[in-house]
């Protein structure tokens, strides 16, 4: 059981940061993960009064506040338009609507969980995190940093044109994923992120130039084989490392074909 001795609704990020420097204190997101822990908390630090519960849109980026819920992310038009609905697809299998109305982006990203759909999507979207003390860095870098007592304030998705597709394999609906895959094609590169391996998400790039001539049935198949061969996976009760490697290749191929299909449909529409 989680026991909380004191509760503080922070009136500034500085206050929240100072309180969070004490080891026994803890920042609250939606508390869905925290509540399952057996832990004695000194002071619970509530960020809900700091205006971090909105997705702000600027000319160049979407700034997702740490207290934005997964449901807000799922329903946000601009975020889903930018990512071809991959934002929605990455969270819609997580438990249920009531759950997603409470789970926060901050708690999901700061936790850097090995099963995370959210981390998988944001890494492929080329997102950055903003930490109160450390400042901005890519989700890709942040995912592998050691845990510290900083506070995540925003997740920032650049408004760079992309094609994206998100797929996951689950043994049963709403369970944790056995494997997740998000592919994103930008003007510069193709990023293929494999999550729930069951380690933290990892971004694979086309280092062999397999997709240099475009995404076709053959190149998607070859890239899938490359992913399958390259990605490091592990075993747990949901699936073996070997099974995950096969699934990773299949999902990578399908995600790329989805992207190619979107391009084709767009071109057809222009005719
Ligand atoms: C039963 C269950 C099933 C789930 N299934 C899935 C799934 O299929 N796919 C998936 O991707 N996820 C899944 N999750 C994870 C879930 O979506 C959330 O990511 C998780 O609950 C954390 O979000 P939260 O808002 O509840 O954070 P909390 O539980 O409140 O916090 C989590 C951690 O993050 C810290 N924290 C929170 N906010 C901040 C911040 N702004 N700055 C610094 N630290 C912070 C807290 O101190 C704590 O250590 C599941 C969780 C549960 C409980």
Textual characterization of the structure:
- The chain has 271 residues and is an alpha+beta fold.
- The chain folds into 3 domains: 2-44, no CATH class; 55-158, 2-Layer Sandwich (Uridine Diphospho-n-acetylenolpyruvylglucosamine Reductase, domain 3); 162-270, Enolase-like, domain 1 (2-Layer Sandwich), CATH 3.30.390.50.
- The strands form 3 sheets. It has a 5-stranded antiparallel beta sheet with strand order 4-5-8-6-7. Strands 9-10-11-12 form a 4-stranded antiparallel beta sheet, with helices on both faces. It has a 3-stranded parallel beta sheet with strand order 1-3-2, covered by helices on one side.
- It is built from 10 helices and 12 strands.
- The chain binds flavin-adenine dinucleotide.
- The site of flavin-adenine dinucleotide has 29 residues, from strand 2, helix 6 and helix 7.
């Amino acid at each position: 059981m989680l026991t909380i001795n004191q509760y503080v609704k922070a009136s500034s990020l500085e206050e929240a940061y100072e309180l969070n420097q004490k080891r026994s204190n803890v920042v609250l997101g939606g508390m869905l993960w925290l509540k399952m822990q057996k832990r004695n908390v000194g002071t619970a630090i509530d960020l809900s009064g700091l205006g971090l519960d909105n997705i702000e849109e600027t000319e160049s980026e979407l700034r997702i506040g740490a207290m934005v819920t997964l449901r807000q992310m799922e329903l946000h038009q601009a975020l889903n338009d930018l990512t071809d609905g991959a934002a929605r697809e990455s969270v819609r299998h997580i438990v249920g609507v009531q759950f997603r109305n409470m789970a926060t982006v901050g708690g999901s990203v700061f936790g850097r969980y090995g099963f995370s759909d959210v981390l998988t999507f944001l890494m492929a979207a080329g997102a950055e995190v903003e930490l109160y003390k450390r400042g901005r860095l890519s989700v890709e870098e942040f995912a592998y940093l050691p845990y510290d007592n900083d506070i995540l304030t925003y997740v920032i998705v650049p408004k760079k044109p992309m094609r994206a597709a998100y797929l996951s394999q689950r043994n049963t609906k709403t369970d944790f994923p056995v494997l997740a895959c998000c592919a994103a094609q930008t003007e510069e590169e193709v990023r293929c992120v494999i999550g729930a391996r069951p380690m933290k998400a990892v971004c694979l790039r086309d280092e062999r130039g397999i997709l240099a001539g475009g995404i076709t049935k053959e190149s998607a198949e070859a890239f899938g084989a490359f992913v399958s061969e390259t990605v490091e996976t592990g075993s747990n009760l949901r699936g073996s490392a070997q099974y995950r490697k096969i699934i990773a290749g299949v999902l990578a191929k399908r995600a790329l074909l989805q992207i190619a299909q979107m391009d084709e449909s767009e071109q057809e529409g222009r005719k």
